[in-house]
Amino acid sequence: xxxxxxxxxxxxxxxxxxxxxxxxxxxxxxxxxxxxxxxxxxxxxxxxxxxxxxxxxxxxxxxxxxxxxxxxxxxxxxxxxxxxxxxxxxxxxxxxxxxxxxxxxxxxxxxxxxxxxxxxxxxxxxxxxxxxxxxxxxxxxxxxxxxxxxxxxxxxxxxxxxxxxxxxxxxxxxxxxxxxxxxxxxxxxxxxxxxxxxxxxxxxxxxxxxxxxxxxxxxxxxxxxxxxxxxxxxxxxxxxxxxxxxxxxxxxxxxxxxxxxxxxxxxxxxxxxxxxxxxxxxxxxxxxxxxxxxxxxxxxxxxxxxxxxxxxxxxxxxxxxxxxxxxxxxxxxxxxxxxxxxxxxxxxxxxxxxxxxxxxxxxxxxxxxxxxxxxxxxxxxxxxxxxxxxxxxxxxxxxxxxxxxxxxxxxxxxxxxxxxxxxxxxxxxxxxxxxxxxxxxxxxxxxxxxxxxxxxxxxxxxxxxxxxxxxxxxxxxxxxxxxxxxxxxxxxxxxxxx
Length: 498
Ligand SMILES: Cc1cc2nc3c(=O)[nH]c(=O)nc-3n(C[C@H](O)[C@H](O)[C@H](O)COP(=O)(O)OP(=O)(O)OC[C@H]3O[C@@H](n4cnc5c(N)ncnc54)[C@H](O)[C@@H]3O)c2cc1C
Description:
Layout: H1 11-15, H2 17-27, E1 33-34, H3 37-40, E2 57-59, H4 64-76, E3 80-84, E4 100-104, E5 111-115, E6 120-123, H5 129-136, E7 141-142, H6 155-161, H7 168-171, H8 174-177, E8 178-184, E9 190-194, H9 205-209, E10 218-225, E11 227-228, E12 232-240, H10 243-255, E13 262-267, H11 268-278, E14 288-296, H12 298-314, E15 319-322, H13 326-337, H14 339-346, E16 349-352, E17 355-356, H15 362-376, E18 380-385, E19 390-397, H16 404-421, H17 440-443, H18 446-459
Parallel strand pairs: 2-4, 3-4
Antiparallel strand pairs: 1-2, 5-6, 6-10, 7-11, 8-9, 8-10, 12-14, 12-15, 13-14, 13-18, 16-19, 17-19, 18-19
Helix pairs in contact: 10-12, 11-14, 15-16
Bound molecules: flavin-adenine dinucleotide.
């Protein structure tokens, strides 16, 4: 195992591997249980590729009953389970454990119901994010949250990570676009939260489940809101000679009461990498680039374009283009959407961070990141969901150089500390996973953490579902409330807690 400290594998479970695999084979089709080392290899990592670990065994259930039977068996036999969608998580949320069953949900790949009258669709969790839009676009509808990974990532993964994208500034994150889920608990019980209706009775358990990173249950069905595609959309591509000027433009657009469909920012290293990759005419002399998209009825869009243009010019825009066609608008976005692979071409490895700050703190954080870049002697390219204050610094490193991965990780951790210091949070949309797990005490005190763990215990008191993720240390559910945790250091550290 490379990477962070994970729960000590349960030697007893590993010794019983043959018996566990045989039992799983009685519950699932032959091809739905994968246990040969070669076939397990593709599952050893998710999008956080620096860390990898072969799972005990992989299962690919096809029905809710199969999910329930497997979870009930694992609960009864003290076997851990890691749920997995498409494996694109950038925070190691789907990182396997040596003593855990990895449950892939990718056979749950059907659209079950499209209800245009109620403006929603019911889908299985393995349907890709883009697959939902593809299923409804013939009638002029779409699913709004659009992570850059939308061609590959699953809606189940989106629910678990509360994923976002370019259009979430105006249309909300996953949590604002999911109306209901069906979920199987570790006990095998099947629960339904929410549904086609707009509000649910009782506690907002749906809100709790969205963003819970596979720690509370395995989602087997998702009801999503679908929206009518906007009548028109146009975009501005604006270059500035400083990130401060671009940041000020963002703040003034929002202050003017304009909520763009998307408002993204890239710094110079990201602009150069993206332009070299997609060649769509990004201004190579700009220090910062803004892409602002306005959508709605044509008359409204025309007026808003003029207003944003005026704000950008008053902040010293050095280049300004307005898309004249849909093809040109898509070309403006092409570089931003391909920013990650573009950066992948200029550096052997990169480490993508995900912090969120109050918009006004952007200049301060950018200066801080520049200083950290010099301190750690590592380059950093930046793309931002500027309207949301969600930063994606991409730290460039070469894993073949001894110590460079560790330096990149420390650099990333310092960026997140900086985000928290200016009033922001550790993650915007990629989740905590294992990547930011040990930074949780920077953000939450012992009381907060204990309460979050009580929620986990209410759903999974054996701590069998996705352990080692999100919480810096898991405590036995019974001892909650009697623990003193200071900066992640707990008493009786030698006590096995996972
Ligand atoms: C190139 C690239 C670009 C990206 N861009 C964005 C972006 O713009 N915005 C964004 O938000 N994210 C982005 N991501 C991150 C990632 O795509 C999202 O977090 C996505 O939601 C993960 O979905 P997945 O199906 O791959 O889930 P996985 O990676 O398989 O799993 C992620 C988490 O969800 C849990 N999980 C998965 N399925 C279920 C289920 N059915 N029930 C319970 N838990 C489950 C897993 O246990 C894990 O904790 C990007 C990733 C890449 C590689």
